[in-house]
Amino acid sequence: MRKMEEKDLPAVLALENELFPESPWPRSEYLYELNENPFSNLWVEEENGEIIGYIDWWILYEKAQLANIGVAKKAQKKGIGRKLLKKCIAHAEEKGCETLSLEVRVTNDPAIRLYHQFGFIDAAIRKNYYENGEDAILMVLPLGGTYDDDTGN
Questions:
Q1: Collapsed DSSP state (helix, strand, coil) of residue 151
Q2: What are phi and psi of 61, to 5 degrees?
Q3: φ and ψ at 34, to 5 degrees?
Q4: Strand order in the sheet with 2-3
Q5: What domains are defined for the chain?
Q6: Any idea which residues carry the catalytic annotation?
Q7: Which residues neighbour 119 within 8 Å (Cβ) at sequence distance 6 or greater?
Q8: 122 — alpha (psi -120 to 50), left (phi > 0) or beta?
Q9: Tens digits of residue pLDDT in 9-65
Q10: What is the mean pLDDT of the chain?
Q11: Burial 5-15 (b: 16+ CB within 10 A, else e)
């Protein structure tokens, strides 16, 4: 696993289109995340030089937000999503975040099961969250938190 670079975008965008054909993130969103968003953390997982998974999370002071995660269909059910999520959680804990939250499609049963296995709880329904009108479940993982803003406080 390594940090995502701009050169990874063609492979990541191909996965986005494979996994989320109804509402993939556009290239411009990834460029913003890579080059302008000071809160973002983008990582990729490779196998034999091929990107098979990616994740983007934000550390927003005492809170963390999982923005996007995807695993190639051919690589699913091999622990890649679990590995990516563990990286995100470990970083949020390292930064002293109190919670990690995410939104997931109400129809994405495999992802919901995975998040429940990690201890995420269903916090709310976000009506018409996705472009196609589908609802999302807001899920939250309590982390405890001892937020350190790097100022010594």
A1: coil
A2: 65, -115
A3: -75, -40
A4: 2-3, 40-47, 50-60, 63-71, 99-105, 136-142, 121-126
A5: 2-142 (3.40.630.30)
A6: 103, 115
A7: 141, 142
A8: beta
A9: 999 999 999 998 888 899 999 999 999 999 999 999 999 999 999 999 999 999 999
A10: 93
A11: eeebbebbbeb
